[in-house]
Specification:
heterotrimer, A alpha/beta (407), B alpha+beta (381), C mainly alpha (565), A: 407 residues, D-Maltodextrin-Binding Protein, domain 2, 2 domains, eleven-stranded mixed sheet, globular, C: MetI-like fold, 23 helices
Chain lengths: 407, 381, 565
């Protein structure tokens, strides 16, 4: 034993002293500083939160059960309709018979389409359950869900996302009868999706400061039209980016770059949203702005006083008058196809299209629906001869905008 | 209690034999990664025994204790409590089923529970629970403090709460892991005595783990010295102090100084002369000298007046050794005794513990000799 | 001592006494091992390792998903990963993460010090206010920063009369850095405050005694000891900056997460996005390692823990006013600014006729799901933290750190991983609360683990062992001893998870039951439609609800319990 002084490590004697992520240690340190009252408070709060959660969940389940339709036919639905599944919907959107539920993924904001939902339900007898999220996020979600997607219908803010789903085979063909109601420019060439409302790029201008004859006929001439420091734009807006994509398709990447650089040369004023651009034009802070056509109507409706603003449409075929659409597609393999078709059908009838014309001030895409006041008819706008499916290369556009320091 | 350092025989006994010792460990072995920390420890405690496991830090004593408690699982060997086999390799009863009470170094009082609730923690629910708590607190002299929170007590009181808590369920054995090391020196002596008495009154069997030899010597009936994972000596305090089995144990238990010498059979030749060797010695050896066995006598003509005690005049034994001369270097006075450091003419320094009735001063010339027989260990290297 | 027992004569200490025993420090904190917390090296019991392993596997879900997706991409993946833009956004991200961490620490350390150790007037009030920006969803914060400091924002508007036409742009690095710093510095604040309160003031005093002035004492003695706390908080802030999407988009700074989103949004390409996300994970791993380095081998400081004596507050003297001005400006910017803008929007919206319908339901939804997630995350954190603390080893440490990688992932990735898992493999659970809660747990578990781990470190394992020796089984010992003693840590972890789930967006949008509106989705819906007036009410409600647990966290700030001696 002597001389052999090496002492075996005693694991119980060493301690691993580490410092933890201390974030919430605030409370931990104070554990024994707490008074009893404090403890009770915390306990109460914890119990309260848990209780609330439990209650919330129970409520949720209860209401979910309430929402589950009775096996008995929906009293609002036409009792006859179920028997004739081929029933063609009456124009004007009388309730069709395929009552049931439909899960809709909506990339259009609830602010825009929320009020339409009860109308669709009334018009079709279909109960809609709508999940709102960003259009591209929903597209990604649908791709991840694959065959198991709970959604029957995808309502997209723009054609690009619908094109992406179509390319992945996630959409099923729409009945020809529905497709034919819409101009071929505004639907999928393969019949996999269809536009439901349109929007045009315009140049909004302050009518007190600018007369229309000063405004260029082509957006390509805007940099040289003498509006230095007076042009507003919202480059993070998806519609603006779709326009730049169109510009790239029509004028080539170099042409688009040249135009953007020229625009930067006249010192455009940057806004967060199209709405902000229009408001600024209304206040006279800037004279013109590159926006979608309908913001003018929204802002006019929102302001108490009439603002001195008007839309200037670029010449037909100009990239600056690109018409893009919001559209819908029915998801492949869904067991709600019937309801989905009923809803698409309704969306392409006069009441729904009138909603877009009157409430969101968009272009209706079927014939015979009156436009909002002052809106140039779609035939006259004649957006550029461009296939909306060609606007898929958003990445190139974003790369260009980023490279130029615009976004 | 028997020391069986050389064999591991007892493990083979029939575990079902009732009325075995309160504790029997046989061949306990435990490794953590590299090499065993506990290496074949045998330990027996009869009922009512107070056994100390003494060893330096890292010798495996705490691990041994934890294996007895069920907090570690042995790699080999067995543990019996009250004749019941509670641990063997591959099957160890959890601590809650062993009837083993523990008192930890830091007491491990539950800070969120009152003293009474701490003590009640191990007691079954029932009508007599409160009575048993009160009785336990009474036993440790804390009656009436049950509603206090642990942090409101002094260290000594906390110690006694820990003891009451461990004793309340009437365990077969109580394990004490360095229970006094958190107390300051003055309190420690007092609490030790109290603990000893409480345990004695309760008739408890206790195993004390400590690195403090003074604590072990003063408290325990028997002491098992652990070194490098093994029990190297298992003896009563007197035997351990006077007849340590090795130089290392000698140095660890008590103050020991070593003097080289040559073994001559029954005597050893050293620079203090030929000393009687208990147990005999041959060849090169080292002789253990406890300070209290070193005697000093003032050399004639020294400046200090010779007193009756300086030559430790308890009648010189036969063959009185010649001794060696030296000079007093320092003197520390403790009241009940004094510690004197002497430099021999050879340059070697020795410590001597003497009675206090002398006038020895630093600088005095003294003759150094040894009382009684000495213990010799073979000299290494 | 109330004892009549005979006092044995004190004996002199033996000369060969072994290591000297600890003295009074242990008296103050008898339940804490003087040598710190010992670590068991044994095999952990099933009740610990099984749930911990399950939690660990759960945490790997997003990574597995990413590997599957990235594996589907063809050769383009290398082209994408190696292109110049990747390097640029990586550099941007690193710059942002480090700048946010550094600035957050620079803001938070003085705040924490002022509110813990000085006689700052109303210091508890300041402590609460300084922690609160954590509850402001960063996208809301970014909107308000733009509204206030952006072009034609409130600031420029008020400067207009002096002819200020244009402010330096808020967009780009500066704005993103400023916004993220303002809303993540509380991570550092809370963690440094905890560390400060655990520090033994005697050390600072000793340093003063050695002739250092108060400032020097702080820099030489206190600050180095705060390093682990700063590192831990800064890591969370940095990872937040790495994974955030809202702020960098609104303030137009090109980071890695934005590049990932571009893949999803612009190309609808999940495979390339996954490849980029894996790269982000690697980057986050670097940050986590860097934090480990920064944390260093510093010992665990809080052995004295709550028992530590509170120092006498340091008198600020004439520094009081600058100190107050400092606190006021931080709180004003990080809390006053967003609240002010939101209230302005609210008033404008209400006068414009915005209704407040559905807010109550959304609030109940938010609170329910956040509370469930908080409870689940805390429950999951317990075995992970136990494994890490009580059975620490290389593997347990690694496992704990792996959880942080998920934390660095943008929410969209975690959300899509669970969409993939839920829709295809757990179909009955898809779009139900349980799966949603599970996804939140994966995203925010590290916050709970950190809190539980910290408080667990302060509970001596001896306590659990004592309970075992007194006849309790492992579960009984945990329930009767460990849980009560770590309750405040558990509550803290739960509170953090609660408030981050309250403001979480992508997972909520992807996985909530259909038509399950929460406050966060209400804000998102409204701002997405440009209806800021409508967004203000749910945003304010969200902030108010999240503030409750945050305030509880800080409100427990108590001066030392007196009368121990």
């Amino acid at each position: 034993m002597e001389g052999k002084r090496t002492v075996a490590p005693n694991p119980t004697d060493d301690h691993e002293a580490r410092t933890a992520p201390l974030i919430a240690a605030e409370a931990a340190v104070l554990a024994d500083e707490q008074t009893l009252t404090r403890r009770r408070l915390v306990r109460l709060a914890t119990a309260g939160a848990a209780g609330m959660a439990a209650t919330g969940y129970a409520l949720e389940r209860a209401s979910a059960q309430d929402a589950t339709p009775d096996p008995a036919p929906d009293p609002e639905a036409d009792p006859e309709a179920g028997e004739d599944e081929e029933a063609t919907p009456a124009p004007g959107g009388t309730p069709v018979g395929s009552a049931g539920e439909l899960v809709v993924y909506s990339g259009r904001n609830e602010e825009l389409v929320g009020d339409l939902v009860p109308r669709i339900e009334g018009g079709t007898g279909v109960d809609l359950e709508v999940e709102y999220a960003g259009t591209s996020e929903l597209a990604a979600q649908i791709l991840e869900e694959g065959e198991n997607t709970p959604a029957g219908l995808f309502l997209a803010q723009d054609a690009g996302a619908l094109g992406a789903l179509a390319a992945e085979g996630r959409l099923q063909e729409l009945p020809a009868e529905l497709l034919e109601r819409v101009d071929p420019r505004f639907r999928s060439p393969d019949g996999l999706w269809v536009g439901i409302s349109g929007r045009s790029r315009v140049l909004v201008y302050n009518t007190d400061q600018v007369t229309e004859d000063r405004l260029p006929a082509s957006v390509l001439d805007l940099p040289t039209a003498g509006f230095e420091g007076q042009v507003g734009w919202a480059p993070t807006n998806a519609s603006f980016q779709a326009f730049v994509t169109a510009l790239r398709v029509l004028e080539g990447d170099e042409g688009a770059r040249a135009w953007l650089e020229a625009m930067q040369g006249i010192d455009p004023v940057v806004f967060e949203s199209n709405g902000d651009v229009v408001r600024a034009v209304g206040r006279g802070e800037i004279q013109v702005g590159l926006v979608n056509h309908y913001y003018l109507y929204e802002i006019q409706a929102e302001e108490q006083t009439e603002l001195p603003i008007a839309n200037h449409f670029f010449q037909a075929g100009d990239p600056g008058s690109l018409v893009n659409v919001a559209g819908v597609g029915i998801l492949a393999g869904t067991d709600q196809a019937e309801q989905a078709e009923a809803v698409v059908d309704y969306l392409l009838t006069e009441p729904a299209q009138a909603y877009f014309a009157e409430q969101t001030f968009e272009y209706p895409l079927i014939q015979g629906v009156p436009l909002a006041e002052g809106l140039r008819p779609l035939e006259e706008v004649q957006g550029p001869e461009i296939d909306l499916s060609d606007l898929a290369d958003l990445e190139g556009t974003l790369a260009l905008l980023t490279e130029l320091g615009i976004i | 209690m028997t020391a069986v350092p050389a064999t591991r025989a007892s493990g083979a006994e029939d575990p079902t034999t009732a009325a075995g010792p309160a504790l029997r460990c046989a061949g306990l072995t435990k490794s953590f990664g590299a090499g065993p920390v506990v290496d074949g420890v045998d330990l027996v405690a009869e009922r009512g025994d107070f056994v100390a496991l003494l060893g330096p830090s890292g010798c495996g004593k705490t691990t041994t204790l934890r294996m007895i408690a069920g907090l570690e699982e042995p790699d080999a060997g067995t543990v019996e409590v009250d004749g019941r086999l509670v641990a063997r390799p591959g099957r160890a009863e959890p601590p809650e089923r062993r009837r083993v009470g523990m008192v930890f170094q830091d007491y491990a009082l539950f800070p969120h529970l009152s003293v009474a609730k701490n003590v009640a923690f191990g007691l079954p629910r029932g009508r007599d629970r409160a009575d048993r708590v009160a009785a336990a607190l009474e036993t440790v002299g804390l009656a009436g403090l049950g509603e206090r929170m642990p942090h409101e007590l002094s260290g000594g009181q906390q110690q006694r709460v820990a003891l009451a808590r461990a004793l309340a369920p009437e365990p077969a054995i109580v394990l004490l892991d360095e229970p006094f090391s958190n107390l300051d020196a003055e309190l420690r002596a007092q609490v030790r005595a109290e603990v000893r008495q409480i345990l004695g009154d309760a008739g408890a069997t206790a195993i004390l783990v400590t690195h403090d030899q003074e604590e072990a010597l003063s408290l325990a009936d028997r002491i098992a010295v652990m070194w490098d994972g093994r029990v190297v000596q298992d003896a009563n305090p007197e035997e351990l102090y006077h007849r340590p089995v090795s130089r290392a144990v000698a140095a660890f238990v008590g103050d020991a100084q070593f003097l080289p010498g040559d073994g001559l059979g029954r005597r050893v030749a050293t620079e203090l002369g030929e000393l009687p060797a208990s147990g005999g010695a041959t060849g090169p050896v080292e002789v253990m000298l406890r300070p209290e066995s070193v005697r000093l006598a003032l050399a004639p003509g020294a400046p200090s007046a010779p007193g009756p005690g300086e030559d430790a005049g308890e009648g010189d034994g036969p063959g009185r050794p010649a001794g060696a001369s030296g000079t007093v270097v320092t003197r520390a006075f403790y009241g009940h005794d004094q510690l004197v450091t002497v430099r021999l003419d050879s340059g070697r320094v020795l410590r001597a513990r003497l009675g206090t009735y002398g006038g020895i001063r630093p600088g005095d010339q003294v003759t150094v000799s040894v009382r009684g027989a000495v213990l010799a260990f073979p000299r290494m290297g | 001592m109330l004892t009549l027992r005979p006092r044995p004569a004190a004996k002199p200490a033996s000369l060969v006494r072994g290591a000297s025993a600890a003295g009074g420090g242990a008296l103050a904190a008898p339940w804490r091992g003087r040598g710190g917390v010992r670590v068991r090296r044994g095999r952990p019991p099933v009740v610990v390792w099984l749930p911990a392993v399950l939690a660990g596997l759960l945490m790997l879900t997003p990574l597995v998903y990413l590997v599957i997706r990235a594996g589907e991409s063809g050769g383009d993946v290398w082209g994408l990963v190696l292109r110049a833009r990747t390097a640029r956004v990586l550099a941007n991200t690193a710059l942002l993460a480090l700048a946010v961490a550094a600035a957050g620490s620079a803001i938070a350390v003085p705040l924490a010090w002022l509110t813990s150790w000085t006689d700052l007037p109303l210091r508890r009030w300041w402590a609460m206010a300084a922690a609160l920006p954590l509850v402001v969803p960063s996208y809301v914060g970014a909107l308000t920063v733009v509204a206030a400091l952006g072009p034609r924002g409130a600031l420029q508007g008020s400067l207009e009369r002096w002819g200020v036409e244009r402010l330096p742009t808020i967009y780009g690095f500066f704005g993103a850095w400023l916004t993220l710093t303002l809303f993540t510095y509380p991570y550092v604040f809370l963690s440094v405050r905890a560390a400060l309160r655990g520090l033994d003031p005697a050390l600072q005093e000793a340093s003063r005694g050695l002739g250092h002035g108060p400032w020097r004492a702080f820099f030489r003695c206190t600050l180095p000891q705060l390093r682990p706390g700063i590192a831990a908080g800064a890591l969370l802030a940095a990872l937040y900056a790495v994974s955030d999407f809202g702020v960098v988009t609104l303030l137009r700074y090109d980071t890695f997460v934005r590049a990932i989103y571009v893949q999803y949004r612009a190309s609808f390409d999940r495979t390339l996005a996954a490849a980029l996300a894996l790269l982000l994970v690697a980057f986050a791993a670097g940050l986590v390692l860097a934090e480990a380095r920064l944390r260093g081998r510093a010992a665990y400081h809080r052995l004295g823990g709550g028992a530590a004596r509170r120092p006498k507050p340091i008198a600020l003297g004439r520094w009081r006013w600058p100190a107050l001005a400092y606190c006021a400006s931080v709180v004003g910017l990080a809390l006053g600014l967003p609240l002010g803008v939101l209230v302005f929007w609210l008033l404008r919206g209400v006068s414009g006729g915005e209704g407040l319908d559905g807010l109550a339901t959304a609030a109940v939804h938010s609170v329910s799901v956040s509370a469930l997630a908080a409870a689940a995350a805390t429950l999951a954190a317990l075995p992970v933290a136990t494994l890490a603390v009580r059975y620490a080893g290389r593997v347990a440490g690694l496992a704990e750190r792996v959880t942080y990688l998920g934390y660095a992932l943008p929410g969209i990735v975690v959300g899509l991983a669970f969409v993939f898992l839920g829709a295809n493999y757990l179909t009955p659970l898809y779009k139900t609360l349980p799966l949603m809660v599970l996804a939140y747990v994966v995203r925010f578990l590290p916050q709970a683990v950190g809190a539980v781990r910290t408080s667990l470190l302060q509970v001596s394992p001896r306590l659990e062992e004592a309970a075992r020796g007194l006849g309790r089984g492992p579960a009984g010992a945990t329930w009767r001893v460990t849980v009560p003693l770590t309750r405040s840590g558990l509550a803290a972890g739960a509170a953090l998870v609660f408030l981050t789930v309250m403001k979480e967006l992508p997972i909520t949008l992807f996985l909530s039951p259909i038509e399950y509106d929460t406050l966060a989705t209400s804000v998102w819906n409204a701002t997405g439609g440009g209806a800021y007036g409508k967004a203000a009410a749910p945003a304010l409600l969200l902030i108010a609800v999240s503030a409750v647990p945050t305030l509880l966290l800080v409100a427990r700030d108590r001066t030392a319990r007196v009368g121990r001696d």
